[in-house]
Amino acid sequence: LTARRGISHMCYKVLVIEQNNYLGGGYGLGGYMMNPVTVREPAQKIWDELGIPYKKVSEGLYLTPEPHAVSKLIAAACDAGVKFLNLTKFDDLIMKNGRVTGVVVNWMPVSALPRNITCVDPIALEAKIIIDASGHDSVAVKRLVDRGLVEWKGMNPMYVNEGEEHVVHKTGEVFPGLIAAGMSVTETHGLARMGPTFGSMLFSGKRAAEITAAKIKELER
């Protein structure tokens, strides 16, 4: 959501593919199914930008109710012009000349239909850049891993400080046309997990937006 909002603010058209009937992914679940979510300094500055109220619970740690944080981020993305396709399942990538140029998607409920009617053909959606922000599933990156085009390392054990720092640093293009953000970065590069704190997720999204804009400008030259 953070990445899409940032890209849309740069006047690019943005479409989010979401297989659930709700938005926000794990951000809306908090840690241990508890309502509050946390970020570490300086991620509270992004909350300031979005008008999300929070309180300081210890040095460098900030807390806010999950519904407020998620709803504000969704609203900000919508206000920036981001479009959403809910209940839409990612199936595969489109590739041309060694570059990812789109995604293949289908209606999510198709996967729950009886086998004799699950041959509903997917459709193709072309794009200049694809961002895999699908979390631990890393659905787009894994399609390239299956084909031997990208190396996959899998997530390492928890180390919050290191995990948060490295996920932002490693956010970027993993294959021409495909950018990994958030926990997809952690899984792809074998980084430490950071648990239920979301500052690096916000900054990873922001960095993904900046990289996406730069890559699109390169294509337009």
TrEMBL record:
GO terms for biological process: thiamine biosynthetic process. It comes from the Archaea. One of its GO terms (molecular function) is metal ion binding. Keywords: Iron, Metal-binding, NAD, Thiamine biosynthesis, Transferase. SUPFAM superfamilies: FAD/NAD(P)-binding domain. PANTHER family: THIAMINE THIAZOLE SYNTHASE. This is Thiazole biosynthesis protein. It comes from Marine Group I thaumarchaeote. The lineage of its organism: Archaea, Nitrososphaerota, Marine Group I.
